[in-house]
Specification:
heterotrimer; A alpha/beta (591); B alpha/beta (597); C alpha+beta (162); A: 591 residues; alpha/beta; Ubiquitin-like (UB roll); Rossmann fold; 5-stranded mixed β-sheet; 4-stranded parallel β-sheet; C: 162 residues; 4 strands; 11% strand; elongated
């Protein structure tokens, strides 16, 4: 590796060629503040517009200041990161940014979790000169089923634009207008709801300010919990337990399943259930559908649609409905675990406890913002009553726990309620990329071969590479599996399928980086991919610790089929657990 | 040109066309036809002569008579008198305002005397829509010469030795730029001509493209040969329809003559040129922004490095030069680098084209050797200040430049001197201001431009320029405080120091230079609430001079807010608390009884 | 950017498709395609941008991002006689602002809008390169030089009667 010698703040150092001043400084403990810059290293996402100009430093011999996030080191450079000139510039630039930013921090959804606020604290800004005469750029507030855009708070860091376009290839957002009126917006500055937005929430996850936030459904949940006529049940998605602790200061990757269950009981939910139960159910349905298609394929049926694509990620479903409507018949028709849960809860379980559908309220705790939209889809309701009433994110749950005076750290571990709280390890790993297909493979293998798996862990399906593939030997048949996380990666696999170049039998797709652990509703990772890795590790640990690790061995799932559904893909199962898709590409834009 | 014994060259520059030079051509042709002279006298519409103040221009060759301010109705006289009877049409000749004599040719005109035309060498001499006329003036000889005699490296050495620097802004050495692009290894490279002239008040690139398009095409081919590119792209403002049509004609003709396309002049060198259209964004003059725009994207600049010479259009090595820079190239090849470097100052070689405008007698396009002083330009070529007013400042370099004062009049113009004085060469706009121009308002005008043209990508430029504008606006309203001057200065310096691209790095220059040279004018606005130049409306006080007022009531009737009272035939008065300073009373008064202070 | 809602006819959609095709449906040619479309329609309504995005296989947000970046592109139709006032520096120092104010007053419209009858629209542009004639006003293709506020009425009159 080539090295270059340089001097930063009086220290002579040697660093690899091609790294930035910011990284070189960091290597010797000098933390130059950055604002617009964002790097998700293991996911190959870098947002480096060099736009905010907060990170400027003085480089000897250079006419103007250099943005340290995007200026590479050079041999012999002499850099001052905290000279009077650099500090004055940094402060003045921050004052400028603040002069065009609302000052209602106290009531902002991002308060306490805002990079801009942190910067103002760090630089000790006390006054913004000329604020009283400064015109502010203002925009219409845009509320969609999942995401709120308050662009008055946008600082044009372009992170959301990078996520939406480069990583997700959704293209709902773009920089529009010019100069002082420049802002990130959907086409024609229409509402997000009318754009091609998938609600993956990655824009929200990376937004440094309160410009992009989730729609908060906690108030609805609170009032339902206080309605004596309602029985309120809650389901928690697998990825939530691996990240919720971070909101209470625990290290990333700390599993808080037991504390979370306890907290939910204290919040007043009548039954605390697990989306994992429905994940096992998903495997039964989706796995069966996969086996059916494969069997037909192996029997020479040329019309069978392969590969089969997973369908549990709602942002992914939105994505193909918008971008690949002609491929509607390829994804599995299985509903997502959230919706299977709701559907079973409001039929099977409601009957079981003798509560009328309209008196049963289903709340989901999700790492996801697209789930908010998913549960509002018309096809997932009966006579206007939705299968899942409210979906709140991991972040919202953390706020709710704090608001309810619950000392989370002191809580004893408790177990989920039965029957819909029981799950296998296979269900838990739904929370990370590769998990759904691994869970499906565990079940498909044993059902197809009627033999016990020699080894439950499919290491070859794990990891954080954007597109992965593996070939699983199922009794002599080579099952070719593809995995993509991030919709940009998904697009590549879809283009291959469209072009007839795909050789996979089954593909798992998750919209978010790392899968649900990196969901748009999770505690903010601020671009640190180590956090994602820790969460994934926690998920696999939970799986390994489970007594049952295959969906088809979950006794309550077996009971559900016996008592209620019959068998996988039965007519009843079809009615309650499967769905159909829509062509949203020709949806007329509403301006 | 052999068949004709006489030529009438009619200026087809934008200014003259706006004054009906098309109709002049038409009428001249009609008259010649009537007189049966259409076989012996040719009417040619040329590019800009430069002397826009006195346009439309008609020049008679070979006797070089230079007619000014010609109207279509003058065609009859020109043909009957000058051509048939051989008598000059006295009334259309230029009258020297200083010496009060009539001058019949360019040599005798002070406007042209100190000029040296290299980039503009063919403008006004040839029909830009006829390649043969360009060839007749040694056109395409330079490309022919280098293709047969020089290696690409040798051409680059010639350009380097000539000392030619970029004419579009910062003055980067052209030869070095070519060399850097040549050095980058790639299967595909591009030559880009930046014709996105966006400087308000500069129109030299347009004039060259309209008057001599082939010189730019030839230069691009020379550049292509030197750096190893087979494709040239001209990024041109869509607002320049005439330049576009002439370029398209020229490209077509050059292809027909085998001077563009495959195997040029049998040398094995391929080179062709396409047009790419700008769509009205000043920031696209910045080369990275220009490249993004050519790629069909928002014209936002990006950080350098990587420089376009390494990673440019479609991520391929790209050499970007502006029109005027390129127009010099064929002349340098033909006349040699020694000739070129003998002109100018130590570090700035050759000539520079300036668009002289504002409060000056001879508005127009001029080309002078580097090192010419501002005084020579303003007083000799420009003929001094309009209406006998006092010179106050000259603004060079457009929105990126600064305002220079009387103290700078004897500074020889070159890159370094202008920079040292707080301005810059820029693309060559030169706006003259007189005592009636308020320097705070001028700074505000340029900031308004920068605010509108900022791409918005970086915060200092996006927000900072807006704040500068707001501060200046408050000063012109008389609402600013003394501390605001320090803020103005700090903000300007930080914007320069931290902005992403050349636009933000230079947009505060008009503020800083006026603050430096006209500080007392700023202070007058802030402390005395007065605009010394009398331009800032909000600071004006309208009052009625008792001794002039006859009580006609015209002003009171004109006042839209009823601020003026007074009986008929009695002296009127203005209530300052109601007055909105619209100036209606001043305009209406026939007795000079309304005083504006 | 404010805009006007329209419905495209099939032949209009075909026209856009044809334009895109002449540029090989290359997203890199977006600006050229938009120029041609604006030439065809006089402006760039949202519906046109949607078809362009479709044809060039890019997101309509990106197309809109480009349309709103460049001042040459407009999403509202111009008047039959589009009036452009040059506000370049040469024209500015010779009083273009006053001329602009007079046009606004006479027409009672703001810059970037059209008169209710669709006859005139008002815009500013930066330097047409006729600084010798400053201040300069363009009405359609016709150039008026050395315009004074008093002359505004006469210019408008010329077109009122057409």
């Amino acid at each position: 590796m080539d090295l270059v010698k340089l001097n930063i703040d009086g220290k002579n150092i040697e660093v690899p060629k091609g790294i930035t001043i910011h990284k070189a400084a960091k290597s010797i403990g000098i933390d130059i503040p950055v604002l617009c810059y964002m790097e998700l290293k293991d996911l190959n996402i870098e947002n480096k517009p060099g736009g905010c100009r907060i990170c400027v430093v003085e480089v000897e011999g250079r006419r103007n200041l250099a943005p340290s996030c995007s200026t590479n080191v050079e041999e012999g450079m002499v850099i001052k990161t905290s000279s009077l000139r650099a500090m004055n510039a940094r402060r003045t630039v921050l004052e400028l940014i603040l002069s065009d930013h609302p000052k209602d921090c106290l009531i902002c959804a991002k308060s306490g979790n805002c990079d801009l606020q942190d910067m103002a604290i760090r630089l000790g800004v006390r006054k913004i000169p000329g604020q009283e005469f400064a015109e502010m750029s203002t925009y219409r507030l845009d509320t969609s089923p999942s995401i709120i855009r308050d662009m008055d708070k946008c600082i044009l860091c372009r992170r959301c634009e990078t996520m939406c376009n480069d990583f997700q290839t959704v293209g709902a957002l773009s920089a529009v207008n010019r100069g002082f009126q420049a802002v990130i917006a959907p086409a024609f500055e229409m509402n997000l709801e009318h754009s091609s937005c998938t609600y993956c929430g990655q824009c929200v996850a990376v937004c440094p300010t309160g410009a992009l936030t989730e729609v908060d459904h906690t108030p609805d949940v609170i009032s339902t919990l206080n309605d004596p006529t309602k029985t309120v049940i809650v389901q928690t998605a697998p990825a939530v337990r691996a990240a919720l602790g971070e909101e209470f200061g625990l290290a990333p990757g700390t599993l808080v399943t037991g504390k979370m269950v306890n907290a939910l009981r204290r919040l007043g939910f009548n039954y605390v259930f697990d989306t994992d139960f429905a994940a096992d159910l998903t495997i039964m349905e989706e796995g069966t559908e996969m086996l059916n298609r494969l069997t037909k394929f192996l029997n020479g049926d040329k019309d069978v649609k392969l590969p089969i694509l997973t369908s549990c990620c709602p942002a992914w479903v939105n994505f193909f409905e918008h971008q690949f409507p002609e491929m509607q018949d390829i994804p599995s028709t299985a509903r997502s675990p959230q919706q299977m849960f709701g559907s079973i809860a409001k039929t099977y379980f409601a009957d079981k406890i003798g509560v009328k559908r309209e008196d049963l309220v289903v709340v989901s705790i999700m790492p996801c913002l697209a789930k908010k939209y998913e549960c509002q889809r018309e096809e997932f309701s009966v006579d206007g009553n939705p299968d899942v009433d409210f979906s709140i994110s991991t972040r919202e749950l953390a706020h709710f726990i704090k608001e309810a005076n619950i000392n989370f750290m002191e809580l004893e571990n408790e177990d989920f309620d039965k029957p819909m709280g029981e799950s296998s390890g296979a269900a838990v790993i739904f929370g990370t990329t590769g998990g759904v297909i691994e869970a499906a493979t565990r079940t498909a293998y044993e059902i197809y071969t009627k033999k016990e798996l020699p080894k439950i862990d499919f290491e070859e399906l794990r990891g954080l590479d954007g597109i992965r593939e593996a070939t699983i030997d199922i009794d002599g048949f080579d099952l070719k599996i593809g995995i993509a996380h991030g919709l940009g990666n998904a697009r590549k696999l879809l283009e291959d399928i469209k072009a007839g170049k795909s050789h996979y039998h089954a593909i798992e797709i998750m919209a978010c980086p790392g899968g649900c652990i990196g969901g748009g509703g999770q505690p903010l990772h601020h671009g640190d991919s180590k956090i994602l890795k820790a969460r994934a590790k926690a998920i696999y640990k939970e799986d390994a610790n489970k007594p049952i690790r295959k969906s088809h061995e979950n006794p309550y799932i077996l009971e559900l089929y016996k008592e209620f559904l019959g068998e996988p893909m039965s007519e009843k199962a079809h009615h309650l657990l499967h769905t159909h898709y829509f062509d949203k590409s020709k949806k007329k834009f509403q301006i | 040109m052999s068949k004709y014994k006489m030529h009438l060259l009619v200026c087809g520059g934008t200014g003259c066309r706006a004054s009906a030079s098309d109709a002049i051509v038409e009428n001249l042709k009609k008259e010649l036809n009537n007189q049966g002279l259409d076989e012996s006298v040719q009417v040619i519409m040329t590019g800009c002569f430069g002397f826009c103040e006195k346009g439309p221009i008609v020049k008679v060759v070979p006797d070089n008579t230079f007619y000014t301010e010609v109207k279509p109705s003058d065609a009859k006289d020109l043909v009957e008198e000058h051509i048939i009877k051989g008598r000059k049409v006295e009334r259309l000749l230029y009258k020297d305002p200083v010496k009060k004599v009539t001058v019949s040719d360019e040599e005798g005109m002070s406007f042209y005397k100190k000029q040296l035309r290299i980039a503009l060498r063919n403008c006004g001499f040839i029909n830009p829509e006829n390649i043969e006329e360009y060839i007749a003036r040694d056109g395409y000889m330079a490309i022919g010469q280098i293709l047969s005699e020089n290696t690409p490296e040798e051409v680059i050495e010639i350009i380097k030795a000539s000392g030619l620097r970029g004419r579009g802004g910062a003055g980067f050495p052209t030869g070095l730029k070519w060399q850097l692009t040549r050095q980058t290894k790639s299967d595909q490279k591009y030559v880009v001509c930046n014709a996105d002239e966006g400087d308000p008040g500069a129109f030299m690139d347009r004039s060259i493209l309209e008057g001599d398009p082939h010189s730019v095409l030839e230069a691009m081919a020379i550049c292509g040969y030197s750096i190893g590119a087979d494709t040239g792209l001209i990024y041109i403002r869509a607002e320049y329809p005439l330049a576009i049509s002439r370029l398209l004609t020229a490209i077509g003709q050059a292809r027909e003559f085998g001077l563009l396309g495959k195997n040029i002049l049998g040398s094995g060198f391929d080179f062709d040129i396409e047009l790419k259209y700008g769509a009205g964004a000043f920031v696209c003059g910045e080369e990275t922004a220009l490249i993004h725009s050519m790629e069909g994207k928002r014209g936002e600049p990006s950080l350098k490095p990587p420089f376009p010479s390494v990673e440019g259009y479609l991520k391929k090595p790209t050499n970007v030069n502006n029109v005027e820079t390129l127009a010099n190239i064929p002349a340098i090849i033909l006349k040699g680098h020694k000739w070129f470097s003998s002109i100018g100052t130590e570090k700035s070689k050759g000539t520079k084209v300036f668009a002289l405008a504002g409060k000056i007698n001879n508005v127009g396009l001029i080309e002078v050797p580097m090192g010419t002083t501002l005084r020579e330009v303003i007083y000799e070529i420009g003929g001094g200040i309009k209406d006998g007013k006092k010179f106050k400042a000259v603004q060079t370099g457009g929105p990126s430049g600064g305002c220079l004062t009387e103290a700078h009049l004897d500074v020889p113009i070159d890159y370094e001197n202008l920079l040292a004085a707080g301005s810059m060469m820029g693309s060559g706009g030169m706006i003259i201001m007189d005592e009636d121009n308020c320097m705070v308002s001028i700074a505000k005008y340029f900031l308004d431009f920068s605010v509108e043209e900022s791409c918005g990508k970086c915060s200092p430029c996006r927000i900072g320029n807006k704040r500068l504008y707001e501060l200046l606006d408050r000063i012109t309203q008389g609402k600013a405080e003394f501390d605001d001057l320090a803020r103005l200065k700090n903000l300007s310096e930080v914007i320069k120091d931290t902005s992403l691209c050349g636009l933000g790095q230079s947009s505060p220059n008009p503020v800083l230079s006026t603050l430096q040279y006209f500080r007392e004018e700023y202070e007058a606005h802030i402390i005395d609430h007065k605009c010394p130049a009398g331009e800032c409306k909000a600071l004006m006080v309208y009052s009625i001079l008792e001794e002039h007022c006859v009580g006609c009531t015209a002003c009171a009737r004109a006042c839209p807010v009823g601020a003026i009272s007074g009986e008929r035939k009695l002296v009127h008065s203005i209530d300052q608390s109601i007055c909105i300073k619209c100036g209606a009373c001043f305009d209406k008064c026939k007795f000079d009884a309304v005083l504006v202070q | 950017m404010s805009s006007v809602k329209i419905e495209l006819r099939k032949d209009q959609v075909d026209k856009i498709r044809q334009i895109a095709k002449t540029f090989k449906n290359d997203p890199g040619e977006l600006i050229n395609v938009l120029h041609k479309c604006q030439g065809e329609f006089g402006y760039l309504p949202a519906e046109v941008q949607e078809v362009v995005a479709d044809e060039l296989k890019m997101s309509v947000a990106k197309v809109y991002g480009v349309v709103t970046f460049y001042s040459f592109f407009s999403m509202i139709p111009t008047g039959r006689y589009p009036i452009s006032i040059c506000t370049g520096t040469a024209c500015y120092v010779r009083g273009a602002e006053k001329v602009l104010a007079e046009f606004k007053k006479q027409l009672n419209i703001e810059v970037g809008t059209s008169s209710p009858d669709g006859k005139f629209s008002l815009s500013c542009l930066r330097c047409v390169g006729a600084c010798g004639l400053a201040p300069v006003v363009l009405v359609g293709d016709k150039t008026f030089g050395r315009v004074s506020p008093d002359g505004v009425k006469d210019i408008l009159k010329e077109f009122e009667e057409m």
